[in-house]
Write a structure and sequence with these properties.
35% strand
Length: 121
């Protein structure tokens, strides 16, 4: 596995872990996957990954979905509408699933800035 992968751990009603974290096998890839953000209903996950062919870029935004929290995740796909030729990473999805904040160096300022995208209902 890569240096960074996505793991899951069960949590009790009191917020304590219910056991050890386990690798999310259907999302595993030799690339680095980091900063996962899961929609409140548990049916969509966004994360930054280096699993692309463009070696000039470190991270892009990726997405995976599932029909219910009991189902496996779909094969991840690149979030094409938001990715740029720059590093796009660290997605954070709002609790209503309509606003996405992420970091990107697309302004070529040699630093990451925060970007926002919203979904229409």
């Amino acid at each position: 596995m890569a240096a960074q992968d996505i793991y899951v751990a069960s949590i009790t009603r009191n917020g304590e872990t219910g056991g050890p974290a386990v690798l999310v096998a259907e999302l595993a890839d030799p690339a680095n996957d980091a900063a996962a953000s899961v929609r409140t209903d548990g049916r969509e996950i966004l994360f930054g990954s280096t699993r692309h062919e463009d070696t000039r870029v470190d991270f892009d935004l990726w997405i995976s979905t599932r029909r219910s929290v009991h189902d496996a995740w779909s094969p991840p796909g690149i979030l094409a509408l938001l990715n740029s030729a720059a590093n796009d990473q660290q997605p954070s999805l709002s609790s209503d699933g309509r606003t996405l904040l992420f970091a990107s160096d697309r302004l070529a300022t040699m630093r990451l800035d925060i970007w926002m995208s919203t979904r229409t209902p």
